[in-house]
């Protein structure tokens, strides 16, 4: 999906939030699943569980979170355009691509129907379900787009060069989800930053709401990814 808005100077509150979030991003790079992927040491049983938990708890419901936010936008706005394009892309392809990648780790598609989410993955999924529907739109987009898509961009960029080989190569069907997020999420993250700025403006309460949403989302996202790989 092409960028919908150009970059602009960051306000102080967002610069401060970026700095506050750096340790969370660093912690994500230290997760066992990320380190194992980079070192070619993924454990098949743990990866099987990871693909099921994250697939059912995050990847499958992600288009619904985007749609919940889209329903609260005004038609024709940049926020609506961004969320519609993102949601259409996720709905159309990404869940199927995740399942194709999961098959490389021995996951049968039917297993998603019986998987019970762990407390950590389920808790994170419930958080984004709530925020996307009920938090101020700026805070919701902070959680879903600024945090999750920024984190996904960082993680996939780190592991993609190693995982491509395990998935049959860069152009293999099993690598499509990984390729799409390694290459597309940086733009989604950048657009989200700009759109959140526009929604927040100089509203102190919204700045605080976005900061709280970012902290909570990073904390629970990290816990979910850590728990899923066991």
Q: Roughly what is the average pLDDT, rounded to an integer?
A: 94
Radius of gyration: 17 Å
Please give the CATH class: Mainly Alpha
Shape category: globular
Q: Fraction of residues in helices? A: over 70%
CATH architecture: Up-down Bundle
CATH topology: Heme Oxygenase, Chain A
Main sheet overview: none
Instruction: List low-confidence stretches.
Output: none
Number of domains: 1
Q: Structural class from helices and strands?
A: mainly alpha
| Number of strand segments | 0
Task: Give a description of the structure.
The chain is mainly α. The chain has one domain: Heme Oxygenase, Chain A (Up-down Bundle). It is 75% helix and 0% strand. The chain has nine helices and no strands. Helix 3 packs parallel to helix 6 (119-134), helix 3 (44-59) packs antiparallel against helix 9 and helix 6 runs antiparallel to helix 9. The chain is globular, with a radius of gyration of 17 Å. The model has no long low-confidence stretch (mean pLDDT 94).
